[in-house]
Design a protein that fits this description.
This is Tyr recombinase domain-containing protein. InterPro entries: DNA_brk_join_enz, Integrase-like_cat_sf, Integrase_catalytic. The chain has a three-stranded antiparallel beta sheet. It has a two-stranded antiparallel sheet with strand order 4-5. Helix 6 packs across helix 10, helix 13 crosses helix 14 and helix 14 packs across helix 17. Strand 1 and strand 2 form a beta hairpin. The chain has 22 helices and five strands.
């Protein structure tokens, strides 16, 4: 029987027998066992299954992509179990090797030997792991509902875990693997690491930077390891280290180094998200480049409709009042997106009261300002800067006229409210936020415009008039210059700027205000 026919017969048998039991009720083959055989067949198709040995499996592993290596190893473990129980499968005994496949070499390096560390370090490590995976007890509200002297951000503090970990052992193993990765890549000579006696001395900003650079260089030099910018493995490891560092209150420099490494040097979900959103936005632009005028004039038009309704407020019915408030709220959402591009999560939960407001009203001769701390931004870069006067006029109309009426209708304590868009239970629900946004963009004739797309609207408008000014766009978006240049210097980003440049002569006067941004 040829190699391919032997693998096909073995795979067919596995598919028929998996998840079935023998006459004694014992499971013959586990569920999905045929997938393991299919994976082995794909990697070792040149070798007859009865002749598969340690050497052949090692060669297959050597030519396997790094992100598929773990799957191959699991398939070999499953095959070894079949070899050990070959007497239970007489129909394919001639297709199963006589001896199991031995231990296979590692692609990267030898495993870390934790027994080489001192007992003091192991105790420090175990304490850090315990803190990293434990659940925080939910804080009980006092009899005043935590309104007297309570931190208004306490309920949104992401350092406190309110959802239990389903598998603490798996979480512990994930953090332990991340620490192993740090030691294996940060220290050329592991004996230097073995002399460390605390977790604080191991997880440092210098160690993180060295480990990241060596990890990238090693992958780029290997013919089988994937580029860290094309796989999420590095990001997952750095994310686990960041969680461990935050939960154990390690130095802030360490946390920043982990964030910079995760977002700037390895694969980041932001770049993938940005690419998908940009593609959707470009399709919107290509259908009608004049939508730029509708977008930049949208806040003013929505505000005018809302104010017309406010002028006759007492004569309106419940539906008309709700519609007016939604228009004023939507005008504010769009104005903020044009003033300082923020992600929808930050827009939805923006804070205007308490000790640390994010939207700051001007006092005396000061200017309206947006100041969102880096801890509340997804890519950990602060969003701050002046809000242009034309956009501020739209926002202040909501603050002075719309918000008090909204609180009265929703029975929200206006004095205690700290949110720009409050809901009955705190911040406005995401479902309501999306519904109001969609209603307003449909009103101005741009259906399908999502809040996150507004980031690309702002960037494209600016680059259409100021080609190559990626530094300003990077500051506006809160992204790195390299990221902005990557997505707007060529391809669809450049095409969008060209389309917008063609309609600059007839664009709304609001754009002139926008383009004089300081």
């Amino acid at each position: 029987m040829s190699e391919d026919a032997a693998w096909a017969r073995l795979q067919t048998y596995a598919a028929e027998v998996e998840n079935t039991r023998d006459q004694h009720g014992a499971l013959l083959l586990p569920n999905m066992f045929s997938l393991s055989i299919a994976n082995l067949r794909a990697r070792c198709r040149e070798t007859h299954p009865a002749e598969l040995n340690t050497q052949a499996a090692a060669q297959a592993l050597e030519h396997c992509r790094s992100d598929k290596a773990a799957t191959l190893r699991r398939s070999i473990l499953a095959f070894n179990k079949l070899i050990g129980e070959r007497n239970r499968h007489p129909a394919i005994q001639d297709l199963v090797p006589l001896a199991p496949i031995g231990d296979l070499p590692r692609l990267r390096d030898r495993p870390l030997d934790w027994s080489q560390f001192s007992a003091k370090f192991i105790a420090s490590r175990d304490r850090a792991l315990k803190v990293a995976v434990r659940n925080d007890a939910r804080k009980k509200k006092d009899r005043f509902g935590d309104k007297l002297g309570a931190d208004p951000l306490n309920g949104r503090d992401r350092t406190r875990r309110t959802r239990p970990i389903r598998n603490p052992e798996a979480a512990r193993a994930r953090h332990l693997n991340a620490l192993s990765w740090l030691v294996r890549h940060a220290f050329e000579d592991r004996r230097a690491a073995y002399r460390i006696d605390s977790i604080e001395a191991l997880v440092t900003s210098e160690a993180v930077e060295q480990a990241t650079m060596r990890y990238i260089a090693r992958a780029e030099a290997s013919p089988v390891l994937l580029n860290p910018a094309q796989t999420s493995s590095g990001a997952s490891i750095l994310s686990a280290l960041e969680t461990l560092a935050r939960r154990n209150d390690l130095d802030q420099d360490v946390i920043w180094a982990l964030e910079d490494a995760r977002f700037d040097h390895v694969d980041s979900y932001q770049t993938r998200e940005m690419s998908a959103e940009r593609e959707a936005f470009i399709k919107l632009v290509e259908r009608n480049p004049a939508i730029a005028k509708a977008i930049v004039s949208g806040p003013r038009l929505l505000k005018a409709e809302a104010e017309a309704a406010f002028a006759t407020w007492d004569d309106l019915g419940a539906h008309s009042k709700s519609e007016a408030l939604h228009l004023s709220m939507g005008a504010t959402m769009m104005a903020l997106q044009l003033a300082r591009s923020v992600r929808s999560r930050n827009l939805n939960g923006m804070i205007i009261g308490g000790p640390d407001p994010e939207l700051i009203r001007p006092l005396r001769e000061s200017r309206p300002w947006l100041d969102i701390h880096r801890s509340r931004v997804k890519n950990r870069r602060p969003i701050e800067g002046e809000i242009p006067e034309r956009q501020w006029q739209v926002i202040v109309a909501w603050l002075d006229e719309g918000l008090p009426r909204w609180c009265a209708i929703k029975e929200i304590d206006a004095e205690a409210n700290i949110f720009l868009f409050p809901g009955p239970n705190g911040v406005l629900s995401r479902q309501s936020f999306n519904r109001i946004w969609n209603r307003c963009v449909n009103r101005i004739g741009v259906p399908g415009l999502r809040p996150h797309m507004m980031r690309h609207v702002a960037a494209t408008l600016w680059l259409a008039v100021n080609p190559g000014d990626y530094a300003t766009v990077a500051a506006f978006l809160g992204d790195s210059i390299a990221t902005v240049e990557k997505f707007y210097a060529r391809g669809e980003g450049a095409a969008a700027a060209k389309l917008f440049a063609g309609v600059m002569e007839t664009i709304d006067p609001t754009l002139a205000i926008f383009l004089r941004r300081t």
